Amino acid sequence: MTAEAIKPPLLTLDQVEALSPEEAHDLYGRHYSPGMAKMMAMLGFHRIRPVRSEGMRLHLADGTSVLDFTGGVGVLNHGHNHPRILKARADFAARRGMEVWKFFPSPYQSALCHNLAQIFPADLDVVFLCNSGAEANEGAMKMVEKVAGPRRHKIAYTDISFHGKSHATLSVSGSEAHQRDHFKLLPGCIQVPHGDAATLEKAFRDNRNADGSSQIGAFIVEAIRSEGCITPPEGYFAKVRELCDRYKVALIADEVYTGFGRTGKMFAFMHYGLVPDLVTFSKSFGGGKATLAGYVARRGLFEDAYGSVKHATLHSTTFSGFSEEVIAAIEAIHVLYDERLVENAAEQGAYLLERLNWLKGRHPGIVTDVRGIGCLACVRLENLATRLLAAVPGLGLPTEVVSKITTATVIAEMMARHRVLTFSPPHDVNLLLLTPSLIVGRADIDAYVAALDDVLSLNFAEMVLKFARRLAA
Ligand code: PLP
User: Fold this and answer.
1) Residue 256 CB less than 6 A away from ligand 1
2) Separation of CA 283 and ligand 1 centre (Å)
3) Per-domain residue ranges for the chain?
4) Given pLDDT bands bounded at 50, 70 and 90, which one contains residue 472?
5) Other Cβ atoms within 10 Å of 313 Cβ, number
6) Which ligand 1 atom is at minimum distance from the Cα of 132?
7) 132 C-alpha to ligand 1 centroid (Å)
8) How far is CA 389 from CA 230, 291, 366, 386, 394, in A?
9) Is 138 in the pocket of ligand 1 (CB under 6 A)?
């Protein structure tokens, strides 16, 4: 027997299922993400082991369950393991359908893209499929680059934004924290203030070629900024559309987070009667069972860029819609309509906001702001950090660190005391971001708000001490 044939001590699937939470955490920290493993231990999450997840809940080995208000950070609009989406995948797998269609017209890709064309307005009806939000945004920017050419290569973006962590998408994200260590950014990316059409116009005017045409080829923006639930001022997008038309700038709407019903409309741009030139999407596109993303472009743009045989694969990717994943996405869109999940997001979202406002009234020194639209809401806890700084003289920690500890304490207590999963977005440590699945009901909202009310009513010093003890353990 050759040395190559000797099988190393690989874990089998049965052994994987039998790993204790502690063993899994140890392997995770050693071989996957040392940093995240530390974070999980700080929160006490390293002892949590869901064995099954359904709808709004994670079921643990000890028979208890956790209410999930993260919705898989936007991926689970349909809830965990939606039975129709599971069945669609399982049926396809059982009949051994062909997964990779590179050489024949895939009925699955064709049907999914046809269906998408039905839900987007106007001539937004040619689709590119890929794997992640960053890839979708980068693909959209590359398409505009191909059509606009080198004289119009610049891209405008807003200061309050996040479009991904590839070099190109980071270059158009208003996230200094992420850009600090990865500084090889694209030239020609112009930041403008969010919601400020006058400065956008100035940017279009200031960046001109000798013939008067704007050097800016694209403007990328989230119609509703997911982190912080930031909505634009009245009339902003009407003006943006008019400016983009006047200066021949392609308008890219990033719907990676907000797409497929999250904000109570199928896409966030629909709140403003806007028709973008390209729309990017990901997260819940695969119904929580497929890592699928993509963009849709106006027919003319797509054909100009990649309509010829010569240019058909100028921009492409290997994993551009495996059949089983595409089938999940087809079924996921049907489920949104059949179960009226977008309407439910709007209805329950209004109730959630009402309850959060009640909470704000109960904790005026702690909750400084609440916002929400559909199943996208946030709670600002800014003063918790300030209170801690005041309570512990000579603490000597920067406010940002104190904010992180205090928000983490709330998250840890929500899990430890109430078995509620909630999270803080990466760019704003003072926020709790609430992105429950669109299947959420009143009882879930009541349970979440009661849990947060209880945690915010706890003895603050005690809570932080407990957190510090966990840190030391
Ligand atoms: N755009 C928005 C609005 C996002 O929220 C994200 C990720 O959270 C991305 C793009 C990047 O998506 P991905 O992480 O799949 O690359």
Assistant:
1) yes
2) 8
3) 48-81+341-472, 83-338
4) low
5) 11
6) 15
7) 7
8) 28, 42, 13, 5, 8
9) no
Cβ of 134 less than 6 Å from ligand 1: yes
Cβ burial of 365 (10 Å; 0-12, 13-18, 19+) is: exposed
CA of 197 to the centre of ligand 1 (A): 24
**Rounded-to-integer distance, Cα 421 and Cα 436, Å:** 10
- Counting from 1 in the atom list of ligand 1, the atom nearest the Cα of 131 is 15
300-336 pLDDT tens trace:
999 999 999 999 999 999 999 999 999 999 999 999 9
- The reply to whether ligand 1 has any atom less than 6 angstroms from the CB of 285 is no
Dist. CA 53–CA 30, nearest whole Å? 26
pTM passes above 0.70: yes
Between CA 131 and CA 110 the distance in angstroms is 17
- CA 206: distance to chain centroid? 33
Structural contact between residues 185 and 170, judged by C-beta atoms closer than 8 angstroms: yes
**pLDDT-based confidence at residue 458 (cuts at 50, 70, 90):** confident
Take atom 14 of ligand 1 and give the residue whose Cα is closest: 133
Q: Which amino acid, one-letter code, is at 317?
A: T
- Sheet with 431-434: list strands edge to edge: 369-373, 376-380, 431-434
CA 206 to centroid of ligand 1, rounded, Å: 30
**CATH architecture of the region 48-81+341-472:** Alpha-Beta Complex (3.90)
Q: Is 174 in the pocket of ligand 1 (CB under 6 A)?
A: no
CA of 256 to the centre of ligand 1 (A): 6
Q: How is residue 237 written in tokens?
A: 């997008």
Locate the ligand 1 atom nearest the alpha carbon of residue 225 and give its number: 3
Question: From atom 1 of ligand 1, which residue's Cα is the shortest distance away?
Answer: 163
To 10 degrees, what angle do helices 399-418 and 34-43 make?
60
Residue where the block lists tokens 């209170």: 387
CATH number attached to the domain at 83-338:
3.40.640.10
Residue type, 136: A
Helix ranges restricted to H, 259-398: 299-306, 323-338, 341-362, 382-391
What's the confidence (pLDDT) of residue 410? Answer: 93
Amino acid 222 reads: E
Strands 250-254 and 216-221: parallel
Assess contact for 432 and 423: CB atoms under 8 A: yes
Spacing, Cα 227 to ligand 1 middle (Å): 11
Q: Please state the rounded mean pLDDT for residues 270-282.
A: 98
Q: Which residues pair with 124 in a beta bridge?
A: 298
- Give CA–CA dist 193/195, Å, rounded: 6
Q: State yes or no: pLDDT of 397 exceeds 90.
A: no
Q: Is the pLDDT confidence value at 428 over 90?
A: no
